[in-house]
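Request: Have a read of the protein record below and say how the chain folds.
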Amino acid sequence: MGLLDRIKDTFFSADGELARPRPATFDVLPNTVHAPVTGMVVSLEEVNDEVISGGLFGRGCGVMPVDGVVYAPVSGCVSVTAVTNHMIGMTMDVGVELLIHVGLGTVDMDGRGFERLVEEGQEVVAGTPLLVFDREEIAESGYDDVVTCVVTNYSDFDGVEGVYESGTLIGGRPLVKVGDPLLVVRHAAR
């Protein structure tokens, strides 16, 4: 098999359709939420949405993605899905509840440009592809494609801290790749 054939096999299925993303593999750290996408980290305060930037969804950060695949940032249960496929909730075995939300205003796209790859109630391991999104279609629809990852039940814990240090900065922002440590949830307060 030549190089071109291997590249085709990576991105396309036998019938010529785009292939489903392959799982990502990375070391999973305890009480850690890993990056669900590759891109540049932004604080929640920098996200151009009052609800998200105000912390009403939870504590965490955003990532300006470089591609359109969201991977499970933790092992756990897919606890919430949306008909519009633009967000997914997960619950870790230790009780941490996460919300992964793609874009700002993308709920108004009614699912166009999004494909969910998992179902509510499904157990997944960190690195499982959860959903794919079309960055170009989001931009053409006039929306931002920032991916936010927040701990929604943060008040049940001692704290949620960003740990997205990076030796690579783009525009002064840390670059993370799928599976890099993003957030640490400190032990339960109760």
